[in-house]
Structure formats: C-alpha cells, structure tokens
Amino acid sequence: MVGLPKDGTGPVIAIFAPWTDIEAALKTSGAFEIFPLQTPIAALLAPPNKTVRAALKQNGAWLILNGDTIASLCGVTNA
C-alpha cells in the first residue's frame, strides 16, 4: 500500500508503522530527510528516485505521498 509520486516531483512524506525505526529505515534506504523533526510515523524527504523509493518500501514505508496528494487530503484545492 504505497502512493508513489513521479520521480523528482518535489518533497514527499514517507509514512511508516509506529514500531518502525524510521532513522534506520531512512539511512538504509539512502533517503535524505529535509525537515529536522519527525513524527512517530512519518518523515519529510527530498524527492526520492526509483531506487530510494523501492528501498523505502523494503524498509517499512507504508505510504509515500507527494505534496499535491497531502494538500488534497487536507482539503486544499488551490495548491
């Protein structure tokens, strides 16, 4: 269950299970975190390429959402 944005389309949020060690998952995946704070289940990342996205999935990411998807989920219509 992963919502994959196209390559290089802007920052993404990777959402993980609450029991996932997010820092280890990001490091192992080669993902680059662009916001210094994490929630217990998510991290804001630089746009991942296909290899990093696949690694994020392998390391426990449930969802990978781009900014447009997040804005839509929050009811923003003019993003």
Low-confidence stretches: none
The DSSP helix count reads: 3
Termini gap: 25 Å
Q: Report the sheet with the most strands, covering strand number, pairing sense and barrel closure.
A: 3 strands, antiparallel
Beta-strand content bin: 15-25%
Give the strand order, joined by hyphens, for the main sheet.
Answer: 2-1-3
> For the residues shown, what is the average pLDDT?
84
Quick overview of this protein structure:
The chain is of the alpha+beta class. The chain is 30% helix and 19% strand.
Could you explain how this protein is built, in words?
The protein is of the alpha+beta class and 79 residues long. Helix content is 30%, strand content 19%. The protein is built from three helices and three strands, in the order E-H-E-H-E-H. A three-stranded antiparallel sheet has the order 2-1-3. The longest helix has 9 residues, at 50-58. It is globular. The model has no long low-confidence stretch (mean pLDDT 84).
